[in-house]
Amino acid sequence: MRELNEKIRHIEMPPKMRRLPIDERGFPVPKFVPWLPGPDGVLKPEFRGFDPDHMKTCVRLKRCWLCGDPLGVHMTFVIGPMCAVNRNSAEPPCHHGCAEYSARACPFLSQPRAKRNDKDMPIEASDPAGIMIKRNPGVTLLWTTKSYRVMKTRQGPLFQIGEPEEVRFFCQGRTATRDEIMLSIESGLPILQDMAKQDGPDAEAELRQMIDRAMRLVPA
């Protein structure tokens, strides 16, 4: 078994994730990551996509998106602040411990300047359902709830998140400040506002209500 990358070695890994393989860089490979053949024919993890079979298992059996084990009563969604507005997620929930480890150790989630790289994206690396905002939000929100609803779309399942039992904001692998949270929200809102504007005044009014509701979750 490979050693963990020195950048994340100090972060305690939850027991449920210790069975996951470690990639050549020293990062755990979550259960949802597909393994695809590289130019040399060797299977390698493709972190930019997801395994549709694991998605089906999570939907049908309520398994953790990250470790693959059964979920309990409380489930945690790893989302960006914009998802707190529309309360939709393209990914199923996780154990809280797995979710927190992801927020602290995942290079994309813990590094606000990290960018999504779509160069040479394999066809097999499926995109999730919903309208994907291809930016790094800078802040990761852990939304813990007891419920969610699965909506079927042409692209696959979309998860409507239930009322929060707890919300925690992370930035750079630590608790996010209010200024960091607000910067992430304010930089992402124009994207949702442009979408609502195209759909007309009723959609704009509904979005304003959704924004007000989400803002009540931001710590003072």
Provide an overview of this structure.
With 220 residues, the protein is of the alpha+beta class. The chain has one domain (15-114, 123-215). The protein contains six helices and nine strands; from the N terminus they run ββαβαβααβββββαα. The strands form three sheets. The chain has a four-stranded antiparallel sheet. A three-stranded antiparallel sheet has the order 4-7-6. Helix 5 (178-199) packs antiparallel against helix 6 (201-215). The longest helix has 22 residues, at 178-199. The protein is globular, with a radius of gyration of 17 Å. The termini are far apart. The model has no long low-confidence stretch (mean pLDDT 89).
Reading side by side through the largest sheet, how are the strands ordered?
A: 3-5-8-9
> Approximately how much helix is present in the residues?
25-40%
Briefly note the structural class of the backbone.
alpha+beta
**Integer tally of domains:** 1
Helix count, per DSSP?
6
| Strand coverage percent | 15-25%
Name the shape in a single word. Answer: globular
The residue-averaged pLDDT reads 89
Ranges where pLDDT stays below 50 over 5 or more residues in a row are none
| Total count of strands | 9
Rg calculated over all Cα atoms: 17 Å
What sequence of helices (H) and strands (E) makes up the elements? EEHEHEHHEEEEEHH
The quaternary structure here is single chain
Distance between the termini: 44 Å
Major beta sheet summary: 4 strands, antiparallel
